[in-house]
UniProtKB/TrEMBL annotation:
Residues 358-610 form the RagB/SusD domain. SUPFAM superfamilies: TPR-like. Keywords: Cell outer membrane, Membrane, Signal. Residues 44-229 form the SusD-like N-terminal domain. It is found in: Cell outer membrane. This is RagB/SusD family nutrient uptake outer membrane protein. Transmembrane segments: none annotated. Its main location: membrane. GO terms for cellular component: cell outer membrane. The keyword S-adenosyl-L-methionine does not apply. Belongs to the SusD family.
Amino acid sequence: MKPISILFAVLLFTGLLTVSCNKDFLEKPQGGTFTVDTVFNTKLNASGAVAQMYNLCIPSGFPKNTNHDMTRPDMVTDELYMIHPEYDWMVNVGSYVTGTATVDATIDRGGFGSHYLGIRQANLVLKNIDEVTDADDAWKNQVKGQALFCRAMQHFELFRQYGGIPLITEPLDGAHQLKIHRSSVATTIDSMVNWCNQAAALLPATWPATDYGRATSLAAKALKARVLLFAASPLYNTPPSMQATVDGARFGNEHDTVLAYANYDKGRWLTAANAARDVINAAPASGIALYYTGKAETTPNDDSYAGLGDYEAVSNVYGNSELILVNTLSMDASRYGGWFWGLWMTSKVRQGQWAFKNNVPLEFIQQYEKRDGTRWTLPLTSTGDDFPTWIKAMNLDPRFYQTILYDGMWYNSQRGVLSYYLGDGAQYPTTDFGHSDVGDDGYALETYKFVSRIDNFNDNHFAWPVFRLAEFYLSYAEALNEYQGPQGEATTYLNKIRQRAGMPNKNFSSPDDFRDAVQNERTIEFAYEGFRLSDLQRWLKAYDVLNGTLHGIQTKANATSGTLKRNWRVVDFMRRTFLKRYYYTPFPSSQVSINYLGDGKDWNGQNPGW
């Protein structure tokens, strides 16, 4: 299946947008040819500016061919353990997970200035789109809706890292001229919600297939629902019983308004539930529904589209019905040039040679229930002599086998049965799959979500899911439970996701038990989609979950019986540290030193502890 023609083809337009992060775009035109007046003179030229706005504003979790850009926040959670020295120093993950991060050496989730470049581009479009001479009001209003959505999206990307931020509604001359104080969390959230409402009123429910990837009214509702779920969550809407949990992550004075609401309000959960329900109700008009293949499990030894189970199909079938909004820039190797930084970070199994190894910790594997819905824990002293047989006999949630590959698994026609084991020094040597930059490791489990397995290693069938409908089923269930308990639709919508996955229904009378269940369901359903770090932070669970030693499973070839067996044991990966101050990302020192973030007097606006 090939991706249909997409919006970002406009990026080829006359070479206008050859540098995606040029801070002087439209202010110092390339070659003196383009100015604000000439770009926003014709519909064709203005479409190039709109394309640049999408290029800057629509997030993607695919690893990029760039340094110092941690597009994969799963690297600092219990989802992933990667071994490579460059990933430590190029994106500061090493210092972060060992508790030694500093203001200017912490994880980069897109870059402070880069987000404001996207905001600036959206504001340029909003300010100037009415000047286009050959477009009607309907077209201009749709562009305004897209720009409002993009402005809200980039403010949210900043908000979930920093808390209250400077709110920008005019096209400043560049990120270096940003000199507006931080707004409170309440004002930041209200502004994003307002922009989403305005965008939803201007945007269509659907676009023609040639415009796949543009924001719709449903995408604006989805962003609003995500914002309001964060707003209701304990990090920002802290109940009295959890105040001690955030000690060390707050100032303890009047400046806390940039970190959280001044008071807890249970009604914020109802507001979040209503927003998620609005997405669910509006989905049919946009042609959006949960995606089904008709089977919960992927067909063994089949690397065709027809063999995909429901869960694997959601991420592999381009343009499927569940996707509310995607970033249409694919994982095609042509994007990466000579240095395949991005593709190497996706998985060793994709490259089949030197590459990053996306090891899955045991602590994350244990989030997957058994097929009968029971939880399990593997003692750290556990061993065995036939790992593939053991892991299949565990009969875990089908989503496990559609997300995580294992030593001895048949992967596809080209890779065949995978050999991640340590060699036996004789008949079965260590292969590239059992090796990392620090030597032979034999680590037996690796994630392959968004790693091409089917269609002859076709990287081009992926599109990063910015929003998919399943998110709002679980957001609705989570928020409704917090407001009124698990009875009724909270349980119904949790179980809709479990039923699609082939898992048994859950039924709880206790809000606490339901909370644990829906949080775990969200962890599994959105594994490796960029949710885990932000979810642990907003739930105020990151400090508890991300402090401790991560473990893995190591396998070793054993041919003493005459046939290859894979002995296995539990091994240490590394000790991870999450400091209380990590609940909020520090502002760059270059911005703090200008002294505009705070009150301009005694408080410089930096987040606590940094």
